[in-house]
Amino acid sequence: IERDALDEADTELARTAPPLDSHSMMVPIYLTSRGRLRAAQGRNEEALADFLASGQRCERLGVILGWPWRSEAAIVHALLGHAQEARRLARAEVAVARRFGRPRLLGSALRSQGLVEGGDRGLALLSEAVTVLERSRARVELARALTDYGAALRRAGQRGQARAPLERGLD
To answer: Taking CA atoms, which of 5, 16, 112, 151 is between 20 and 30 Å from 140?
Structure first.
């Protein structure tokens, strides 16, 4: 997915037997991975179903932190026009991540909330996501946050300020 090799990812996924009968973290991992692929393919309804199913499995397993199903579902909800549910899930993910304080999880959650909120509030959240992720080793997450922050600045008419985060994200 990160290399934009979606056909290859789909082929690999088809080779993997879905572990849906398992009672382990393999189920949420599988569902979230499949959901990310479906979202990248533009199959948003299927992606959302996978993210929500991943969340249900996490809840059954007692997993509160560490699996970003809420952030992923929030973004897809927003894409589908479900703004209220998108905001609810994004805010819940940030609240959980703030309690635990892990930079990668918090930065990723802030990025999702920034994308969902939009406007000035979204810009502030995306900026905070960049700051938090700069303290982590999550380079891909930092690149995503920088790119999303730069794009949001451009949309807000701040083209000059957008250049630096966009270039850093690309690097």
So the answer is: 16
**Neighbour-count burial for 99-129, b at 16+ CB within 10 Å, e otherwise:** eeebbbbbbbbbbbbbbbbbeeebbebbbbb
Per-residue pLDDT of the chain (171 residues; tens, 9 = 90+): 988 999 999 999 999 888 888 888 888 889 999 999 999 999 999 999 999 999 999 888 887 666 789 999 999 999 999 999 999 999 999 999 999 889 999 999 999 999 999 999 999 999 999 999 999 999 999 999 999 999 999 999 999 999 999 999 999
Query: CA 155 to CA 104: how far, in whole Å?
Result: 26
What type of residue is 169? G
Alpha-carbon distances of 90 from 43, 82, 97, 100, rounded to whole Å = 20, 12, 11, 16
Q: Token pair for residue 60?
A: 């059954």
Question: For the whole model, what pTM was predicted?
Answer: 0.90
Q: How far apart are CA 11 and CA 69, in angstroms?
A: 23
